[in-house]
Amino acid sequence: MLAATLGPGRAFGQADEVEKPAERPDLDKATQSFIEGRYDECIHTARAGLEDSRYNVEWHLLLIDALMVTGQYSNALAVADHAVDQFRTSIRARYTARPVYFYNGQPERADEMLGEINYLAKNRMWAYTDPVNLISLGRAALEMQADPRRVLEQFYDRAKLGSPNRRDVYLAPGDLALGKGDFQLASRIFAEGLRKLPDDPDLLCGQARAFASSDRRRMLDSLDQALTINSNHIPSHLLLVDHLVDAEDYESADTALEDVLRINPSQPEAWAFRAVMAHLDARFDEEVELRKKALAHWKRNPAVDHLIGRKLSQKYRFKEGADYQRQALAYDSSYLPARIQLAQDLLRLGEEEEGWALAKAVHEADGYDATVFNLVNLKEVIDRFTTLTNEHFFLRMSAEEAAIYGQRALALLEQARETLCERYQVELDRPTIVEIFPEQKDFGVRTFGMPDNPGFLGVCFGPVITANSPASRGLSPNNWEAVLWHEFCHVITLQMTRNKMPRWLSEGISVYEERQANPTWGQIMNPEYRAFVLEGDLTPVGELSGAFLAPRSELHLQFAYYQSYLVVDFIVQNYGLDKLRLILHELGEGADINDAIARHTAPLDEIEAAFEEFATQRAEALGPELKWDRPEPEELAEADPDWTELKRDNYYVLMHQAQQFLRAEQWEAAKAPLQHVIEKYPDQRGGDSAYLMLALAHRKLGETELERDALTRFSLLDGDGVDAYLRLMELDHEREDWRGVIRNAERYLAVNPLLPQPYRLLARAATEAGEKPMAINAYQNLLRLHPPDPVSAHFELAKLLHETGDPGARRHVLEALEDAPRFRDAHRLLLKIRGEAPADESPSPSTPAGSPPTAIEPKDATAPPATTSPGTPAPPAAPSEAEPKSP
């Protein structure tokens, strides 16, 4: 059969004759030409090499690779047929020929190659122990569903030991790690290879792929290096296109695709990317034709539909993406990338039964894929969650957290639904699934398939919201109520637009609606943003989505959210909310965002100019009487009093001066610069706010009322300031301002409902204010958090329950007596509960042994309040949406 594949007199390569070079062809030089992208030169030399050394398999393989990368599939077929026929025991010839047969409409012949490789390996394994054959055997074994770990150990590791300077010994295991979603391992493998071969574009591109999901800037740096070495490197061009499509820079993506199609006019992924962009531009007939071009040579190539579907899902078109994955699986039911993507799409669509079942089936088929391994383990976690439901929501949380703040979260979501559905005139046609994860890694797996995605507080997929719980935030607390409001706003806008909206607009509206719901939520202008605006760091509106992908710093990412909000604020202020709604409706019909904005506001160039003026005015309104030139650190360190006085209106100098005074414990001296800053710039948030610094100075000086005033003003601006809220609760408790305690306890619990201190203070205040249901709930939550002194909480709760006729009072008084058996007031209460009048109603003259500690234990009066970081999205200290929330 092999002999029949090459007819008599058949040529290999192109039919035209090749003039022999004066020198004998050099295989190493020809290979280097291929690596550096000089494909025509490589083909010319390889043909000459074949004429010179017809029985050298290396020339055949190199020529096949060069012809395939340039799209000369029929010419490659002639060479492949000849190689397979002539080198009857070469597994490398058969593995190299396999894709050639696929691209020439011979899938059965392609599958025969695997069968022949398997036969040869079983009968002649002794002949294939050199590194190059081990690599080919390993790649073929993976296609035959061999165990990846055994492939790594028995083939790839042995090949590397035999030839540690070969590029293949790093490319093969690196590709394996990428294919299984182990990006950290992949980055280590490619980095090791690059230490030996720093100018290899394939290794650089592999490294870029390893960084693609975690560090876009490093990805782009690696691609830049690869394309510098080989400007025709198609995998690098395609990865760049992938990034540009994510950034919604479709013009640049199309230019990059032109570069690919110049090299290979039939390149299937290039045509698939064009089909993606046609779909996103609502050119659906063109999308069909472009997909046909992608499948022109390999008509059942599952990678084409998988790529189109994956990119559509990344644009939140999960239904369309799922349809493409199903088509890919119709071509090849075992194609794991499509099965994995479909499982994730179904879970994000809320089609959970089918999604989880598919994830389990994929895991059984491939136990090494990191994404499905993580999903299957996560399913066990979610199965232990408690589900709170009403007509509009399925809220899933850990049982412990659900008992503490689940009903509060459900009520907040219901309020958001009522408010936002009315504002945007939307009727939701299905309940929303909300899942809150106490472990950040579980949130990462549910949201992205991988655990390592810090920097997101929540993500919305349309009918499904995932969020980190306050337990995952550690020392960087964020207002979880603001996060849920923000994410639910995405539910509204994604439904209105049928998931067809640019990321910047989606994020901008959600931040805008946070600000409308609560002025302490969302983002406001600050000194860093002021500098960005006035120093030319505004991103053009049409390019704003790209600002979320590869920001220069975490602060630039935060600014992308703020600028997006600012654009929405500009549109609403100048054209009205009804125009914003019309823009969203048009997007749902497939309109281009710039066209939709122009139809309902003004042409984009006018919007750009007017928005820049709007943003500039907003920036200049921040502390207009202060000077904002930032001194060099050396100037600040060496400043003398005369220089400081000369710069007395400079924000940075004043803050530096205040910090110096506080560090030196010169509390009185610190007040003047802080009061001056606050007077000129009153809208301050965050852990470095002058209000917090001034409150510390007042506290150290014993100026309690002034401290309280500074903290109160801060609390009206900052939605995350738990330490300020707690201190205000303590101060209000001391002056028996019970309503003040309740107010700040509610603020605290909106950030962290999982600590006992606010519940203890809230319970006492609610009791004194006559708010019995609130007090009961506070004591119950306090006990759920296992306080160090549960006796008093059980006793006070028992009293309240007895007063309301709740039979649970008896259990709680017995709980108090179990830990404090000589607690006389508890004994008296128990007698009351049992209906027996106590013998002596008078209070005890002294506290008996075993009685509980006092209900309130004030903090150390000398301890300064801790600082917090500002709100959503997640501050740099942590890494939505703190996010980046959803696209």
Can you give a write-up of this model?
The structure is a single chain. This protein is an all-alpha fold. Among the domains are: 3-230, Serine Threonine Protein Phosphatase 5, Tetratricopeptide repeat (Alpha Horseshoe); 318-383; 387-620, Neutral Protease, domain 2 (Orthogonal Bundle), CATH 1.10.390. The chain contains 43 helices and five strands. It has a five-stranded mixed sheet with strand order 1-2-3-5-4. The protein is globular, with a radius of gyration of 33 Å.
Q: Which tags fit this structure?
A:
single chain, 887 residues, mainly alpha, Serine Threonine Protein Phosphatase 5, Tetratricopeptide repeat, Neutral Protease, domain 2, five-stranded mixed beta sheet, disordered N terminus
Mean pLDDT across the residues is 90
Distance between the termini: 54 Å
Strand order of the largest sheet: 1-2-3-5-4
Might you state the CATH topology name of the domain at 387-620? Answer: Neutral Protease, domain 2
The major β-sheet equals:
5 strands, mixed
Assign the CATH superfamily of the domain at 387-620: Neutral Protease Domain 2
Stretches where pLDDT is under 50 for at least 5 consecutive residues are 1-18, 842-887
Note the beta-strand portion. Answer: under 5%
Based on CA inertia axes, which overall geometry fits? Answer: globular
What would you call the structural class?
mainly alpha
Give me the count of strands: 5
CATH class of the domain at 387-620: Mainly Alpha
Helical proportion? 55-70%
| Alpha plus pi helix count | 43
Task: Put the structure in a nutshell.
The protein has 43 helices and 5 strands. The protein is an all-alpha fold and 887 residues long.
